[in-house]
Amino acid sequence: MSGPLERRWRPSWPCPVREVLTQHRRGGGDPTLRTLGEVVWRGSRTPEGTVTLRVEPCPGVGEVHVQAWGAGAEWALDRLPALLGAEDDLSGFVAAHPLVAEGRRRHPHWRLSRTGLVMESVVPSVIEQKVTGQEAFAGFRRLVRRFGEPAPGPGVERDLWVQPSAERIRTIASWEWLHLHIDPARSRALVRAAAVADSLERLGARGAEELDRGLRSLPGVGVWTSAEVRARALGDPDAVSFGDYHVAKDVGWAVTGKPFSDEEMQAFLEPWRPHRGRVVAYLGMTAGHRPRRGPRMAPRTHLPARPVTRRS
User: Fold this and answer.
1) pTM, rounded to two decimals
2) CB atoms within 10 A of CB 6
3) Cα dihedral 239→243→249→255 (10° resolution)
4) In angstroms, rounded to a whole number, what is the distance separating the alpha carbons of residues 152 and 49?
5) Best CA proximity match to 112, nearest among 247, 257, 240
6) What residues are paired with 8 via a beta bridge?
7) Range name among 71-75, 77-81, 195-199, 296-300 with the lowest pLDDT average
8) How far apart are alpha carbons 52 and 11 in whole angstroms?
9) Is there a contact between 123 and 301 (Cβ–Cβ < 8 Å)?
């Protein structure tokens, strides 16, 4: 095995590596992202090939030390600053609410991460549509371990994986999706997105507005999914997951003590455009989630239909 490529990057602020990179974690058992203390391991598929990243903060010298293995190593190291939040622009953002200001005070160095990889965010976001988090994360794990591949270099020994390629997703048979507990509506949406993966990546390079239009032109992809993708792939500070079962209720509970509807949340957030997603994040950091009452919904099987928690 050849040695890794390395980069020592000196951010202009005290970058909280783990706090930034775990924006991309899909549940505690996500096989594409591992943490060991403050060190983060990430398996990814770049336009140049797969890569294993080991990202270690070195606060004593004000640097981040990164090692990368695999064909995508150079691509990933070139884009490391964006991944760690260097392209997040807070220009024009004013907290303007005590809880938002408190969130920023508690997390002054937190930034929105940008992967630059659209399909990498499309896959788990579509899987998370209309199901409980438990079911979504389990479906993503099954997909990655069944149709993905071990991350290169030391990723193998760390049980780190890379998502399947768009080409591989297009070939998965309908019964295989059911074995993964991913129902036909979501699997069809994934296959459709995979069929135009190159176009989606090009739209992502043109910005959030273009990507939003392109994503929502796909059957089975709506406002919620587009926001989830834009937030991670582009670090879009205005991406809000309207249609989520919890987000509007949590925002309303935080600021008024009563759950909001989507319409009420939209009205509340409007003054912060184009930083509405950032406001939701800061509120979550400060107020957390409203109290959950009653029994948890059991994970669904693909038969029969059960009440949903998220929209497309």
Assistant:
1) 0.91
2) 12
3) 30
4) 10
5) 240
6) 65
7) 296-300
8) 21
9) no
* pLDDT tens track for 238-275: 999 999 989 999 999 999 999 999 999 999 999 999 99
Helix H segments across the chain? Answer: 17-21, 73-78, 80-83, 98-106, 118-127, 133-147, 166-170, 174-179, 184-195, 197-206, 208-216, 223-233, 247-256, 262-269, 276-287
CB 96 within 8 A of CB 271: yes
Q: Is the previous residue joined to 274 through a cis bond, with omega within 30 degrees of 0?
A: yes
Amino acid in position 121: S
- What pLDDT was estimated at residue 3? 78
Q: What are 51-60's pLDDT values in tens digits?
A: 999 999 999 9
For β-strands 39-46 and 33-36, DSSP reports them as antiparallel
Q: Which two tokens stand for residue 88?
A: 């997040």
- Is 72 within 8 Å of 49 (Cβ atoms)? yes
Q: What angle do CA 9, 15, 20 make, to 5 degrees?
A: 110
Report cis status (omega within 30 of 0) of the bond before 259: no
Beta bridge partner(s), residue 46: 49
- CA angle (191 as vertex; 228, 73 as ends), nearest 5: 65
Q: Rounded distance, CA 116 to CA 201, Å?
A: 8
Tokens of 122: 């499309």
In Å, how far are 58, 106, 122, 301 from 113, measured between CA atoms? 19, 18, 16, 33
Parallel/antiparallel/unpaired status of strands 149-150 and 49-58: unpaired
For residue 172, what are the contacts with CB-CB under 8 A and spacing of at least 6?
147, 164, 187, 191
- Compute the distance between CA of residue 136 and CA of residue 131 in angstroms, rounded to an integer: 6
CA distances for 103 relative to 38, 109, 118, 259, 302, angstroms: 21, 11, 28, 20, 39
Q: Is the pLDDT of residue 289 over 80?
A: no
Per-residue pLDDT tens for 120-175? 999 999 999 989 999 999 999 999 999 999 999 999 999 999 999 999 999 999 99
